[in-house]
Amino acid sequence: MNQWRYPLVAVRSAKGHLFAGRITKYLAMFLAIVVWMSRSDAQEPAKQGVWRTERDEQASIQIEIMEMTLTPRAESNPALKHQLLADDFNMLDGNAATYYLKAQGFFEQTVARDRLTEFYEKSRERSRLESKPFGELPPHNWLSMHPGELPIEEVKEFLTLTAFQPRFLKEAAARRRFDLDRNIQGVDDPIGYLLPAIQSMREIARIQSLRCKVAIAEGRLDDAIEILRQQYALARHLGHDDFLVTNLVGMAIASIAWSDALTFVQQADAPNLYWALASLPRPLVDVSHAMSVERHFLYLQLKVLREVDESPRPVGYWQDFLDRLIPQIRTLASDFGIAKQDTETVRAMMVGYIAASYPGAKRYLIEDLGLSREQVEAYPTAQVVFLAMVRYYDSARDYYFKWIRVPYWQSRSVIDDPSFNENSRRSADRVGWSSAPTQILLPAVLAVQRAAARNEQKIALLQTVEAIRMYGAAHEGKLPPNLNDLPVPAPMEPFTGKPLDYEFHSKYAVLNGHAMPGLQYRLVLRFATK
Questions:
Q1: I need a surface site. Which of 62, 306, 433, 470 has the fewest CB within 10 A?
Q2: Is 301 helix (H, G, I), strand (E, B) or coil?
């Protein structure tokens, strides 16, 4: 099981920025989650209900296409009979996190966890002996299978290893609150948090996906809806956490649920889920809390930076400042081979960093912030560097964070413009090494906003499919000529603020999500013939 540390800053050797190491591991994990969310689980030849991939070289995007055969279906009676999240009135007080930890086997399930570990180890050994990728062997290859292709009895036997989970997941889904009690403002070392429980929640979602596929294959559609409800509840709950990486895991889980829901709505007897989807909170995974934490994270980890201002302080103060700063960055020292107890080595690196940063920091304070040359030259070198660091970080941070205050379709014309990052890069180059925390921390903020918009686009695609099924039920199994003809509102595309792109071709229709960076989803829709 991976133990993730949430990063803020880390250190590079004297050849690079002083803030780099642990963040590299975080960004690798972060990007892996975003890429994983952006792909389909199946790469098979064209057939109904399975993703296939095409490449638009001219637009430089990958197009994920699914051919869907639908059965017309009116809304349920009563209309809100089916729900994908518990109604707020019916939600219970209590902490969902406790039940998720129980579902992970952290309480009184040692035997079950050991048996599951043994299963995976045998799969790895088989992978080695047969020279096959681990992902092509059970249980991983089952995740990319259509329910009708699953070896049902084999999958059900595997699921007995986690038979204790469903009752805890049902309890968790009914809870209003999710809180891991991190005390993020009071803890001395936020970057030192381990997040194995969050990684395990992704594994729970994969196992839940297998349960959902088996339920669909066996025609137990009410059970499938219950599993989807639990998946969406888990995704929403992970939006309550302090860390953006947890929010991203929530979005990845919502993506798993979306893929299974697309399969679900193609079943001949599937009820219409339009109103269940319309009832989901927007956004499903709310990143606002974690974004507020991220905005202050530099000062949560390096608390001594809160003292930095224009008040002149003597050299002795800055020597003491370094003594207090070093313990706050020593969590990161091991990333480049420095023993954590080797304070003098860390101090020597800090002194080198300060000397190298001084010219750019001085120029920034005088030319960009308008401080007088006499005032800046009277400061000790360390004060110039750290003052430039926090003033530049505060300014650049809010330049990024202000754009998450508006819907993505309104901000994307700015933040997706190549000049946005180019201007930021030129500005950072001008400031020099004092800009290191800014360059490392802030670009990820925009990637999270894009991931959140992608997640909402998926829900809009599925909800539009259900609106089309509703139209077909009232029009003898015909597809709508355009989305304006739908009997219910067409969901808005979060990348454009408009309905999704819809092409009518008499016997089939094409529903396109707006092309996000490098990727587009396309659903080819037909109604089943009688």
A1: 306
A2: helix
| Per-residue pLDDT tens digits for 186-215 | 888 887 776 778 888 999 999 999 999 999
* End-to-end alpha carbon distance in the chain: 50
Tokens of 271: 């009820």
Residue 479's identity, in one-letter code, is L
Q: Is the pLDDT of residue 29 over 90?
A: no
Per-residue pLDDT reduced to its tens digit, 105-160: 865 667 777 787 888 888 888 888 888 887 788 888 999 999 999 999 999 999 99
At 113 the pLDDT is 72
17, 24 in Cβ contact below 8 A?
no
Place of tokens 């030849």: 45
Query: How buried is residue 496: exposed, middle or buried, by Cβ count under 10 Å (0-12/13-18/19+)?
Result: middle
183 burial (CB, 10 Å; 0-12 / 13-18 / 19+) is exposed
Give the residue carrying structure tokens 């201007």: 423
Let me know: does 110 contact 164? Beta carbons within 8 Å: no
Q: Which residue carries 């595997």 as its tokens?
A: 158
CA gap 499, 484 in Å, rounded: 9
Alpha-carbon distances of 473 from 17, 144, 466, 469, 511, rounded to whole Å: 62, 31, 11, 6, 19
Q: State how far Cα 364 lies from the chain centre.
A: 35
Q: Specify the pLDDT at position 4.
A: 31
**Longest Cα–Cα distance in the chain:** 86
- Cα–Cα distance measured from residue 10 to residue 21, given in angstroms and rounded to the nearest whole number: 4
Question: Beta strand 519-527 with 61-70: parallel, antiparallel or unpaired?
Answer: parallel
What are phi and psi for residue 157, nearest 5 degrees?
A: -65, -40
Task: Please state whether the predicted TM-score (pTM) of the whole model is above 0.85.
Answer: yes
Q: Are residues 55 and 46 in contact, defined by beta-carbon separation less than 8 angstroms? A: no
Q: Using alpha carbons, select from 345, 354, 416, 415 the residue that is nearest to residue 379.
A: 354
Residue 336 has pLDDT above 50, yes or no: no
Residue 233 CA to residue 169 CA, distance in Å, equals 9
Whether residue 214 contacts residue 20, with contact meaning beta carbons closer than 8 Å, is answered with no
- What's the pLDDT tens digit per position in 367-396? 999 999 999 999 999 999 999 999 999 999
Q: What is the pLDDT of residue 124?
A: 84
Note the pLDDT of residue 525: 98
Sequence-distant (6+) residues with CB within 8 A of 424 are: 396, 399, 442
